[in-house]
Amino acid sequence: MTVSTEAQGMAFTGGRTTFGEPDVRADTLADRAEFLTARLTPVSCRSCGTEVLVRKNSEQHTSIQWTSDPASSCPRYADEVARGGNTALLDTCIELSESIATAVAEGAIPVGREDCSQVRTVQHEEGT
Asked: Is the overall model pTM greater than 0.70, yes or no?
């Protein structure tokens, strides 16, 4: 006898496999959303005003998610495009790096997982 996944108390979302079983568990989707969006803090570049979302998992690790097209909002990226360069090879610009470092020093961006209760978490919206 086969017990349905719903009867086993596991909620699934997403598509179905070729055998009709759900292909993604709800807790997997929650883990994915946590990994992609948790503890992201908005930071504006103090030079050009471009806003990005930042997470610092450690002193050495910085995750940056752009909220706009970098070549349209950041002069450094626009210059790279104008020269025919590939912006995918740019890590970030020095002004944005300095803005992030300042935000970390001011305590606006927590480093690691400690004391993250005061950080605004960006909610993942369907289709974004």
From this structure: no
